[in-house]
């Protein structure tokens, strides 16, 4: 469109596409402009997440989080996931298909589990395309990627008692947790990051600034596209306990909520868990203020 040819929005759009596709830029001025665009884009994306989360738009929130991952990793969100590894490009990434995996699909967690403490399981096939120093760098980046285990429980009042009930993962077909309608409940998430206590920056060589590891906890209902709760998580140690508060629907019946653990800088490390609840009638003759006053110790507050 000749009317938008000189627009800064058009220039930003093209620079972002070049960033995602690893396209060469014609001169140093464009490199400087790209660094400025990338720096400002993170703040804009964070603001977008706040706005769409306030509106309760689940799909849009998840998509913006994926765009943030793409900006940090300099890759399209639907690119083959191994393209985020060092020295891996579109012309040589297929060599990863020669690695004998423990699972049917190639993902970064599967790749880490396969080659962790077993360098040759990955290095052997990759020697067809990469030098030994390049393979060692790929191996180091894979081993440094975070592995996060999650335990989920549901806290809140059922009948006349305050209960904290575990949420089994993966849930069975008949594994439904009874809750009351139009009532506040708290999802308690225990995060355990495996590995050493030192947390280095995310591997993102194409991003102009260093990026510390961070996560989004996003709770929503896929059936109606509603986002119920969102929280940012930054690690201060190997373990962390987080809470997401939400209100059950007025209508009774079975509902499946989905909890997403989304990285704010890595592509391909996201996790999701289903929470199956059976919404029964309202909590009779028991107000929320009464429930709060009768809670002796409260739920965990970290």
UniProtKB/TrEMBL annotation:
GO cellular component, one term: endoplasmic reticulum
GO molecular function: 3'-5' DNA helicase activity; RNA binding
Protein keywords: Chaperone, Endoplasmic reticulum, Membrane, Transmembrane, Transmembrane helix
A family per Pfam: Sec63
SMART domains: Sec63
Source superkingdom: Eukaryota
Compartments where located: Endoplasmic reticulum; Membrane
Start and end residues of each SEC63 domain: 2-277
Record's bilayer topology term: Multi-pass membrane protein
Keyword Membrane applies: yes
Name of the molecule in the record: Putative activating signal cointegrator 1 complex subunit 3 helc1
Source organism of the structure: Tabanus bromius
């Amino acid at each position: 469109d000749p009317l938008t040819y000189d627009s800064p929005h058009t220039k930003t759009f093209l620079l972002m596409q070049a960033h995602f596709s690893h396209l060469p830029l014609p001169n140093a001025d464009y490199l400087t402009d790209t660094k400025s665009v990338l720096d400002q884009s993170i703040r804009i994306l964070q603001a977008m997440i706040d706005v769409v989360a306030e509106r309760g738009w689940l799909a849009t929130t998840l998509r913006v989080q994926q765009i943030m991952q793409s900006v940090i990793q300099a890759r399209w969100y639907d690119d083959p996931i191994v393209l985020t590894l060092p020295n891996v490009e579109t012309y040589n990434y297929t060599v990863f298909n020669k690695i004998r995996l423990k699972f049917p699909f190639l993902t970064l967690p599967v790749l880490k589990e396969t080659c962790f403490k077993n360098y040759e399981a990955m290095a052997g096939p990759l020697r067809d395309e990469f030098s030994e120093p390049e393979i060692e760098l790929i191996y180091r980046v894979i081993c440094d990627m975070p592995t996060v285990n999650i335990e989920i429980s549901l806290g809140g009042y059922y009948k006349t008692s305050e209960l904290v009930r575990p949420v089994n993962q993966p849930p069975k077909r008949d594994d439904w947790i009874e809750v009351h309608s139009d009532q506040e409940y708290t999802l308690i998430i225990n995060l355990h990051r495996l590995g050493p206590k030192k947390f280095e920056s995310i591997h993102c060589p194409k991003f102009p600034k260093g990026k510390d590891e961070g996560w989004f906890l996003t709770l929503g209902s896929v059936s109606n596209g509603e986002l119920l709760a969102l929280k940012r998580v930054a690690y201060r140690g190997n373990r962390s306990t987080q809470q997401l508060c939400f209100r059950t629907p007025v209508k009774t019946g079975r509902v499946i909520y989905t909890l997403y653990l989304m990285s704010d800088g890595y592509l391909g490390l996201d996790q999701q868990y289903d929470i199956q609840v059976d919404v029964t009638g309202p909590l009779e003759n028991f107000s929320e203020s009464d429930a709060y006053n009768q809670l002796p110790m409260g739920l965990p507050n970290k």
